[in-house]
Amino acid sequence: MSLKDELSDLLNQGLADLKKINDQAALNDLRVSLLGKKGPITKVLRGMGALSAEERPVVGSFANEVRDQLQAAIDDRKKALDAAKLARQLEEEKIDVTLPGKPTTRGNAHVIQQIIDQLEDLFLGMGYQVLTGPEVEEDRYNFEMMNLPKDHPARDMQDTFYITNEILMRTQTSPMQARAMEKHDFSQGPLKMISPGVVYRRDTDDPTHSHQFHQVEGLVIDKHITMADLKGTLELVAHELFGDRFNVRLRPSYFPFTEPSVEADITCFNCDGKGCSVCKCTGWIEVLGAGMVHPNVLKMAGVDPDVYGGFAFGMGPDRFAMLKYGVDDIRNFYLDDVRFLNQFSMKG
Ligand code: 2NL
To answer: Reaction(s) catalyzed by this protein (predicted)?
Structure first.
């Protein structure tokens, strides 16, 4: 058989084989076997040395033609297969946009967090920083720098979870404030901050005690800060959380870290101050402790008490939430019962 006939057969056989191909992988195999380096066409082209000078260009150009035809047929087949595959995919993966969506259940911030958020917004609006820090603390920041030396009897007031002699679960968020005072450059202006967070006490849980609860402490230090600034600030808090008709009353008290120290009451929300069982007929409800920062606390943080002074307060969002919503057992906030928690959902 002449080389030309051989090439003709190759072309016909190749085109016939191509018709039977139905997937990309088989098509690629056929392309390699026909047109690849080890394929029959390459072999024919290699054998052309044996041909005469007249035959060589004729067979050569025919071989090229066969190769081009096969290549074109393969390309066409590939295009057809690709198009079929895409059509199949589009059909199979079709999305019915008219199907109803799956309902998602949306969570909401915990009721205590909602109160903290509200307080953060209020104080951020007055130019305070919100600073948070570790719940596992050093004795030094939690007690020592708050004017509670090792032998201080007030340490008994706060039964503490100790990790080691020097490391403990913070009993208040003041350690964050001690750090802030230490760091603050007072030549750049006043320090105004609140520190919200979880604190721990070695209490036995009951309706009014939890070994874990929340605190939001506030601290302002500058020149010429007075107790009137403290009272005005606490009035803003009362108005924000409870409403404008609520008043604030300060009563003398004692904390080791403030001097003088006060306890702040607000108008009883239950009887509008007339006197009822909630306020034990006083017309007032105790909501927080506060005072003017003790000079020792300032000194220990490297602040000169002859130049600077300020107020501090500590309030309990748990107690606020109990008062605001009439919750009579603090443990509800920590039991994670969604039937309780969903009552404070802001979903419409
Ligand atoms: C309360 C009352 C209070 C403070 C916390 C404080 C922080 C610094 C300096 C001085 Cl850095 N004081 N915090 C002051 C007064 C009261 O908390 O009833 N705590 C359970």
So the answer is: tRNA(Phe) + L-phenylalanine + ATP = L-phenylalanyl-tRNA(Phe) + AMP + diphosphate + H(+)
Task: Find the 174 Cα to ligand 1 centroid distance in Å.
Answer: 7
- Whether 195 is in the pocket of ligand 1, judged by its Cβ within 6 Å, is no
Please state, in angstroms and rounded to a whole number, the distance separating the CA atoms of residues 287 and 322: 11
Task: Give the model's pLDDT for residue 348.
Answer: 46
Is the confidence at residue 184, as pLDDT, over 60? yes
Average pLDDT of every residue of the chain:
91
Task: Tell me how far CA of residue 118 lies from CA of 50, 112, 216, 316, 333, in angstroms.
Answer: 95, 10, 11, 13, 17
Ligand 1 atom with minimal separation from the 145 CA: 11
* Residue 129 β-bridge partners: 193
205 and 326 both lie in a single domain? yes
Number of domains forming the structure of the chain: 2
Q: 238 burial class (0-12, 13-18, 19+ CB within 10 angstroms)?
A: buried
Q: Is the CB of 40 under 6 A from ligand 1?
A: no
Domain assignment present for residue 103? The answer is no
pLDDT, tens digit (0-9, with 9 covering 90-100), for 275-314? 998 889 999 989 899 999 999 999 999 999 999 999 999 9
Residue numbering of the annotated binding site for Mg(2+): 259
- How does pLDDT run across 131-176, given as a tens digit for each residue? 999 999 999 999 999 999 988 876 765 689 999 989 999 999 999 9
Q: Are residues 316 and 179 in the same domain?
A: yes
Cβ of 313 less than 6 Å from ligand 1: yes
Instruction: Residue 27: give the domain boundaries.
Output: 3-93
14 CB near ligand 1 (under 6 Å):
no
